[in-house]
Amino acid sequence: MTTSAQTVFAPARAKTAAGTATVRRKQGFQHGGWFVAPFLTLFALFVIWPLLRGAYLSFTNANISGEGTSFVGLDNYREALKDPLMWDTLGHSAYFTLLVVPCITVLAFFLAMLAHHIERGKWLWRLCFFAPFLLPSTVAANLWQWLFNPGTGMINHVFGLETPWLSDKSYAMLAVVICTLWWTVGFSFLLYLAALQGIPDHLYEAAKLDGANAWHRMVHITLPMLRNITGLVVALQILASLQVFDQAVVMMDFTPGPEESTRTIVQYALEEGFTSYRVGYASAISIIFFVIIASVAVARMWLLRKREEGVR
Amino acid sequence: MTATQIRVRDPKARKPWTPSQIVLTLLGVAVSVVFMAPLAWALFTSLKSETEAVAVPTHWLPKDWTTQAWKAIFETGNITNWFVNSVVVSVCVTAVVLLVSSLAGYGFARTEFRGKKPLMGLVMAGLMISPAVLGVPLFTTVQQMGMVDTYWGMILPQCAPAAMVYILYKFFQGIPRELEEAAFIDGAGRWRVFFTIVLPLSRPSLAAVGIFTFIASWNNFLWPYMVTNNPDLMTMPNGIATVMNSYGIQWAQLMAGGLMAGLPLIIVFVFFQRQIVAGVAHTGLAGQ
Fold first, then answer.
1. Lower Cβ count inside 10 Å, N or C end of chain A?
2. Residue A58 to residues A45, A88, A264, Cα–Cα distance (Å)
3. Which chain B positions have a beta carbon within 8 Å of A31's beta carbon?
């Protein structure tokens, strides 16, 4: 093994003839293929195949047992686009995303600035702001369900309110949003903190010599240097928020919430698949949702590329 | 100026309390108290009796401190079972992900083979697909393989995260080629170079990938929820949410169970937070 690598590789480095290039590529092929094979096997089985299978099932009337399946063409898609419930649940996911993304970005930036600039006890701030993210989503959801409990919960008690958080349509999603902010801000906080630590000190020192105050330094150095990380935080948050499921479902005791106001698109697809046993229809909803997610991701790549071109 | 510089060099000297530091620290304390309050509330609730937990008006500290709820979750619940399941699943997922994604990241970054570009494109497309997006078809696939209600069914579908391959791919691209080429000339093969030169260099990135995979897997609710109905096979987040909630919520027990589920990761973070923060910077996540 070792000797063959030596004899094959050494001439390839020494000469530039076309023949040796093929030898090099061939050698690289054998090894390169084996390097990626284990991952690609898992990836094909549990990502690509389900995607293709979902696409196929979405054109059928499959149920959970898989018996009596027949091809129904575009019927599922036609039904989905006319289904008010599908649009409602999609709206709930979008509403949740619109509330969460700006709040979490601002909050994460604020917390990172605090943790970065306080000189004492840095580990303690990091731990406090990141710890909630280390809880399982279900635990965070149960905890906030308990905090929002109208009679015995702490939130109403502390703020002197009598808000029926979890049983009123206009507050239920807000409660889920508050839980999510507390639970997930730690991840974005950590991204911001790492980015802040990556800004070279000499920029600030130079600005200080030029007489820039703290505000100027933030607006002219910190914020521009953080532009890329902000783009990443927003993109990751949009994708994660559109897929919200755990918190909403657990906080509402596995129901669609008051007047079905917290049922999200993921929950709807799973209900259609596992409760109503309409696997074909659930697959059609999943594919529609996949197209939405993919559009967001592609839009982000397109924006990034445009900006890079703009810089040049 | 000189005086402060000298003081900075002395590691034991503490930085002075300037007015701005005092204000910032107070602000930090206030925010931390708000952040920690829910956890404190969970802890105090878990130390109340069930009747005291639901007493109105509510109060922070237990009047009668009792470990009754903690004892109850160990005696009556399957919590030790769930804990073991969580450990088995998360450790297996982390080990498999580290192995396959480092191999794949290296393969894509540093070797040539036919079809590399389209395959890489496919993996990048995989970044958009999660069990949340394709839960139902993924379930029917796993069902067809006969892996519903098995450890395999819980573990394997979590082992193909395109994001981790991408992170390691980016990292391996940054390793100087000269290091490898010197080894090739000395007669080392691809695999030897990978295991003896590339992997040791990538420890910070591997640590970050490993820690984030472990966190994600330990806390994963949706996939185990779909793939298992058997209480003996459930993981912590799963068992707590579905079984403990099913026969009338006992808040003190639920809070104790929740803290049990969260504690391992919080302890890991306390010990490894430097590596985690450095890992985030290293993986290039922050630099994109």
1. C
2. 19, 20, 20
3. 111, 189-191
The answer to whether A249 and A235 have CB atoms below 8 angstroms apart is no
- Secondary structure, 3-state, A264-276: CHHHHHHHHHHHC
| B21 contacts on A by Cβ (under 8 Å) | 118-120
> Can you tell me whether residue A71 is helix, strand or coil?
strand
Contact between residue A113 and residue A188 where contact means Cβ atoms under 8 Å apart: no
Question: Count of CB contacts below 8 A, A vs B?
Answer: 310
d(CA B183, CA B192): 9
- Cα–Cα distance for residue pair A200/A207, rounded to 1 Å: 12
| φ, ψ (nearest 5 deg) of residue A71 | -75, 130
Q: How does DSSP assign A93-145, residue by residue?
A: HHHHHHHHHHHHHHHHHHHHHHHHH--S-HHHHHHHHHGGGGS-HHHHHHHHH
CB contact under 8 A, A53 and B270: no
Residue A31: pLDDT band (50, 70, 90) is low
The answer to whether A194 contacts B226, with C-beta atoms less than 8 Å apart, is: no
Question: Mean per-residue pLDDT for B39-63?
Answer: 90
Separation CA A57–CA A66 (nearest Å): 10
Evaluate whether ipTM surpasses 0.90. no
H or E element, residue B51:
helix B50-53
Residue that the structure tokens 């996949």 belong to? A290
For residue A295, with 0-12 CB atoms within 10 Å meaning exposed, 13-18 middle and 19 or more buried, which class applies?
A: exposed
